[in-house]
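ok new one. same drill as before - C-alpha cells go in, u give me an amino acid for every spot. 210 of them this time. try not to just spam alanines like last time pls lmao
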C-alpha cells in the first residue's frame, strides 16, 4: 500500500497525455442564428511553434456535417481548421469541405467562406459563428452534428465523434493511458498484499504444526 501511495503521489496525468481537448461544447441558438463554441485544453495551447516540417505543435479541427448520405468527404459541409488561425488578427478561417481548393494552405479542403474572431484565455478557446455559414443540416432541435479533434505536430491525439451543437459539455476526465497506469498500480499492490497474506497464513500453519 505504501508503494501505491508513493507512486500515486508522483503520478501526473500530464506525464501520460499529449495535447487534449479536455472539455468542449457548442450551442446553436435558433433565435439569433449563432453557434457558440468553447474548448478547454489540458494545457495552454502552443498554436504557433512549428517543427522542422512546418507542423504546429498544437492545433485542432472541426468537421461540420452536411448531407450524411454522401460519401467522404462530401458528407461534410464545412471545416474549421485551427492550423489556419491568425495570431495577429485573431481571425479563424472557415472553409467549405469540397471541392478542394488550389490554395496551398487549404490542406486539401475547399475555399475559405468566412473569417471569424476568436478568443484564447489561458487554456480556453472560444468563438462564435453564424450557423448558416457552417451548415444547413440541422436536427429538430436546431443543432448540427460535428467532430472535433486535437492534433500535435500533425498527428491526431483524440477526436470527439458524433457531437451536436446542443450545448452538451463533453469531457475527458483523465487520459486513458493514465487510467491504465493507475489501474496497473492498484492491481500490482493488491497482488502483493495477497502474496504477503498467503505467506503469513503459511507461517501460522507451520507454527501450529510445530
Amino acid at each position: 500500500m505504501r508503494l501505491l501511495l508513493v507512486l500515486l503521489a508522483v503520478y501526473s496525468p500530464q506525464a501520460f497525455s499529449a495535447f487534449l481537448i479536455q472539455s468542449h461544447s457548442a450551442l446553436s441558438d435558433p433565435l439569433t442564428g449563432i453557434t457558440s463554441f468553447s474548448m478547454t485544453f489540458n494545457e495552454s495551447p502552443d498554436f504557433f511553434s512549428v517543427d522542422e516540417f512546418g507542423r504546429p505543435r498544437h492545433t485542432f479541427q472541426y468537421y461540420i456535417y452536411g448531407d450524411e448520405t454522401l460519401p467522404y468527404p462530401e458528407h461534410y459541409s464545412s471545416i474549421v481548421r485551427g492550423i489556419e488561425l491568425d495570431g495577429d488578427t485573431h481571425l479563424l478561417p472557415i472553409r467549405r469541405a469540397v471541392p478542394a481548393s488550389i490554395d496551398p494552405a487549404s490542406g486539401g479542403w475547399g475555399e475559405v467562406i468566412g473569417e471569424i474572431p476568436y478568443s484564447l484565455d489561458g487554456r480556453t478557446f472560444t468563438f462564435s459563428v453564424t450557423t448558416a455559414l457552417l451548415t444547413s443540416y440541422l436536427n429538430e432541435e436546431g443543432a448540427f452534428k460535428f467532430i472535433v479533434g486535437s492534433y500535435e505536430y500533425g498527428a491526431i491525439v483524440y477526436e470527439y465523434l458524433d457531437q451536436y451543437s446542443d450545448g452538451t459539455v463533453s469531457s475527458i476526465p483523465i487520459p486513458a493511458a493514465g487510467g491504465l497506469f493507475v489501474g496497473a498500480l492498484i492491481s500490482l499492490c493488491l497482488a502483493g498484499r495477497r502474496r504477503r497474506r498467503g505467506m503469513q497464513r503459511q507461517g501460522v500453519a507451520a507454527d501450529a504444526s510445530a
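The beta strands are 21-29, 34-41, 58-65, 76-81, 91-96, 112-121, 124-130, 145-152, 155-164, 170-171. and btw Residues 3-16, 204-208 have pLDDT under 50 and may be disordered.
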